[in-house]
Amino acid sequence: xxxxxxxxxxxxxxxxxxxxxxxxxxxxxxxxxxxxxxxxxxxxxxxxxxxxxxxxxxxxxxxxxxxxxxxxxxxxxxxxxxxxxxxxxxxxxxxxxxxxxxxxxxxxx
Length: 109
Description:
mainly alpha
């Protein structure tokens, strides 16, 4: 029997979570990983986040050329105005999808 692969489900939802974190303040990739782990995504690692950050960069949602902090080689990440619009669309979609999924599973009870 094949077990459920939650990596596909995580990828799409993590994009929205990353954008929410970036909408609150500028940060680094490592701090995003730490925040996600604090919020309950314990299995999320940097290797999971960096491809998602690249995908968000390619969509123009976070800047392609982020400035570096003084004395650091880490990119400072922030959300663009288009990214804020994308986040709002994500939130609307998430609310509708989660409502539908919850409705389906509540029918079992």
